[in-house]
Write a structure and sequence with these properties.
- The chain is an alpha+beta fold and about 300 residues long.
- Among the domains are: about 15-75, no CATH class; about 170-308, no CATH class.
- It contains 13 helices and 9 strands.
- It has helices at about 15-30, 35-45, 50-60, 65-70, 70-75, 75-90, 90-100, 110-115, 125-140, 145-150, 155-165, 225-245, 275-285; strands spanning about 170-175, 180-190, 195-205, 245-250, 255, 260, 290, 300, 305.
- It has a 5-stranded mixed β-sheet with strand order 1-2-3-4-9, covered by helices on one side.
- β3, α12 (about 225-245) and β4 form a beta-alpha-beta unit.
- α2 (about 35-45) packs across α3 (about 50-60) and α9 (about 125-140) packs across α10 (about 145-150).
- It is globular and about 55 Å long.
- The chain starts with 14 loop residues before the first helix and ends with a strand.
């Protein structure tokens, strides 16, 4: 039996953990350290890196950041981490790892960590979501670990593998990449080695904190790291898809509810969108925002296009 800790006990990431997270942004997205630190602070709903570090050192989270800084995902992580580790040692877990070894794996993903039985490599958020799917699938699907992984892995290759094995179209599915602080709702079309991924909604979870008492001085679109953050993350995806032998395109329709086709016509958006317009012009220099696509039999799609 697994005893779970008191949910009201203060537990937050350590200084070492947030520094590792900041270094990850710095190295993998090729961002200056000050930008990486700011993104990490925003991830935990803090307006600055200094405030985040001070509150972790003093165990005094800001009220508006309490749920994210020391919420449920951190409370139960040690027990859930141990549960996953023990599950991987069972006959079901050993068979699961054998299946993973036959799949295309890439670093910094849930699937890669589990394939090597390195539960210690996982973020608390990854532990929480995989644990939840294991428990859910234990009830609904007799504990099929591969199905649980498919539901929450942060690799499109796992999604593609599941599609090819089950001959099933992927429609409006979610990929939550805690490592990079993004969530995508997407459709996938595959024809042998040709692939199209249409990301209907691309949501960042690294936007500046916003409260009624403390609105941000500017919005995510206009931070100097916004454009490279988006571009380097999508290029990271196109690179591992290309390495796996795929070619095609990724099209993003919206970023944080702002249309990538023409953000100026989104009437419900009152924020300054000049940063998004610069991103559009940088990715689509020919100003053409409609692309031919074979996805779902449609003739065209709007948004930012990245070639695989």
């Amino acid at each position: 039996m697994y005893g779970f800790s008191d949910p009201y006990e203060y537990k937050s990431p350590s200084i070492n953990q947030i520094e590792q997270q900041s270094n990850f942004f710095h190295k993998k997205l090729n961002l200056p350290k000050t930008h990486s630190q700011e993104i990490t602070a925003f991830y935990y709903d803090y307006p600055s890196w200094c405030e985040l570090k001070n509150d972790i050192n003093n165990s005094t989270p800001k009220e508006y950041a309490h749920d994210k800084l020391c919420g449920g995902n951190g409370h139960y992580a040690p027990e859930q981490r141990q549960f996953i580790s023990d599950t991987l040692k069972t006959s079901k877990g050993i068979e699961f790892i054998k299946k993973l070894s036959k799949m295309p794996l890439i670093p910094y993903t849930l699937s890669n960590s589990l394939a090597q039985s390195r539960v210690d490599w996982l973020m608390d958020d990854e532990v929480k979501v995989f644990y939840d799917y294991i428990i859910r699938d234990e009830y609904f699907r007799n504990g099929e670990l591969l199905h649980a992984l498919h539901s929450c892995d942060n690799s499109f290759l796992t999604k593609i593998y599941h599609m090819e094995q089950n001959k099933k179209f992927q429609s409006n599915t979610c990929l939550w990449d805690f490592r990079f602080g993004v969530k995508s709702y997407y459709y996938i079309f595959i024809d042998e080695s040709y692939i199209e991924i249409l990301i209907r909604e691309f949501d960042t979870h690294t936007a500046p904190p916003h409260t009624n008492e403390n609105p941000p001085s500017k919005y995510i679109f206009n931070y100097p790291w916004f454009q490279p953050y988006i571009i380097h993350y999508v290029n990271y995806i196109t690179k591992y898809l290309s390495t796996a032998g795929y070619h095609g395109k990724i099209i993003i329709n919206t970023i944080d509810n702002l249309c990538c086709n023409s953000p100026t016509i989104s009437k419900h958006i009152t924020n300054d969108t000049s940063g998004m317009i610069k991103l559009i012009n940088r990715i689509n220099p020919n100003k053409t925002k409609e692309y031919s696509t074979r996805l779902m039999g449609k003739g065209s799609a709007y948004g930012l296009e990245f070639i695989i």
